[in-house]
């Protein structure tokens, strides 16, 4: 009887081979969606991003005052902006504002995001109140803080013991500080939302295991929470860098590039060249410099951090 059963049943090795073959064929059938799914977004991106970018690149080699026909001038616009001391200064100011934004908003957003992901009492109500600045436009926020920080009628004028003469826009250091503060007040809730979602996705079993091993709250934060938030930190930093390099409304409304040119960042200088000086060729060249700078810095962050090699554990599943 034993011989009969053995003869009629498939061997264990053949069962394993068949199962692996079935798994392989199933894995082959389940993959990334085809290009057709991305076609509408690709067409939209090409029409409203790639085509305008090409037009700006072409305009950077032209001389045009907004009227008449553009005239080709070769590298004249580029040589002028590269030799312009205000342009060089604006690049350094842009990098300074960007670095300040990343350095201040990143730790603040992580702490608030991890806190908001918890189960504290009244957490939901406090989170909603804190996220209100995220609902406002940059223009509305800038107008609000311009009124609140007015040197004649605002808070500084009523608290001279803290703000001195009350003119926070009269010195470069305080003016840049105001720009960094207003940007932090408005955009920290957005990055907090990123970290809140990422913190909630961390498996709770990791914290349970850490508690069994005797790890306290601080060790859990630095050895479990922060490593698990790595992808979110990189994503948030890239968004901060791109946002910092393209900041415009805040400078336009709060400081107008002053005092003098002490807060004239590259995006605002582009506006001055193109829409105040009617030198659209030079403005296009500055805009292209910003695009290239944002792209290069973002690629460097992605490559150095290894973000480009990371893959989701759910990729290809349906």
TrEMBL record:
At the top level, the lineage of the source is Bacteria
Q: How does it sit in the membrane?
A: Multi-pass membrane protein
In which broad location class does this protein mainly occur, judging by the first location in its UniProt entry? membrane
* UniProt keyword terms in alphabetical order: Cell membrane, Membrane, Transmembrane, Transmembrane helix, Transport
**Residue ranges of the region described as Disordered:** 1-28
InterPro entries (UniProt xref)? ABC_transporter_permease, MetI-like, MetI-like_sf
The listed locations are:
Cell membrane
Quick check: keyword Signal in the entry?
A: no
Q: Which Pfam families match?
A: BPD_transp_1
Q: Which residues cross the membrane?
A: 37-62, 91-116, 128-148, 168-187, 233-254, 280-302
The family assignment reads: Belongs to the binding-protein-dependent transport system permease family.
Question: Protein name, please?
Answer: Sugar ABC transporter permease
Organism annotation? Streptomyces macrolidinus
Recite the lineage of the species. Bacteria, Bacillati, Actinomycetota, Actinomycetes, Kitasatosporales
């Amino acid at each position: 009887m034993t011989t009969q059963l053995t003869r009629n049943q498939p061997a264990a090795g053949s069962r394993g081979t068949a199962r692996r073959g079935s798994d392989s064929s199933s894995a082959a059938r389940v993959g990334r969606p085809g290009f057709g799914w991305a076609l509408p977004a690709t067409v939209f991106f090409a029409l409203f991003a790639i085509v305008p970018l090409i037009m700006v690149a072409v305009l950077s080699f032209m001389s045009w005052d907004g009227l008449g026909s553009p005239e080709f001038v070769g590298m004249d616009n580029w040589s002028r902006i590269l030799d312009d001391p205000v342009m060089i200064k604006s690049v350094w100011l842009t990098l300074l504002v960007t670095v300040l934004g990343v350095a201040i908003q990143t730790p603040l957003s992580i702490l608030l995001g991890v806190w908001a992901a918890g189960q504290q009492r009244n957490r939901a109500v406090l989170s909603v109140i804190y996220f209100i600045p995220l609902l406002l436009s940059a223009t509305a926020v800038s107008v609000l803080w311009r009124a609140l920080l007015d040197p004649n009628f605002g808070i500084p004028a009523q608290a001279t013991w803290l703000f001195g003469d009350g003119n926070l826009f009269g010195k470069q250091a305080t003016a840049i500080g105001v720009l960094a503060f207003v940007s932090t007040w408005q955009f920290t809730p957005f990055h907090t939302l990123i970290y809140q979602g990422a913190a909630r996705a961390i498996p709770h079993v990791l914290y349970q295991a850490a508690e069994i091993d005797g790890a306290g709250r601080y060790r859990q934060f630095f050895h479990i929470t922060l490593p698990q938030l790595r992808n979110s930190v990189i994503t948030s930093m890239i968004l901060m860098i791109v946002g910092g390099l393209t900041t415009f409304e805040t400078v336009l409304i709060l400081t107008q590039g002053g005092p003098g040119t002490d807060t004239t960042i590259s995006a605002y200088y582009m506006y001055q060249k193109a829409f105040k000086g009617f030198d659209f060729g030079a403005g296009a060249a500055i805009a292209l410099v910003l695009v290239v700078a944002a792209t290069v810095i973002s690629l460097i962050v992605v490559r150095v951090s290894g973000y480009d090699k990371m893959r989701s554990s759910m990729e290809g599943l349906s």
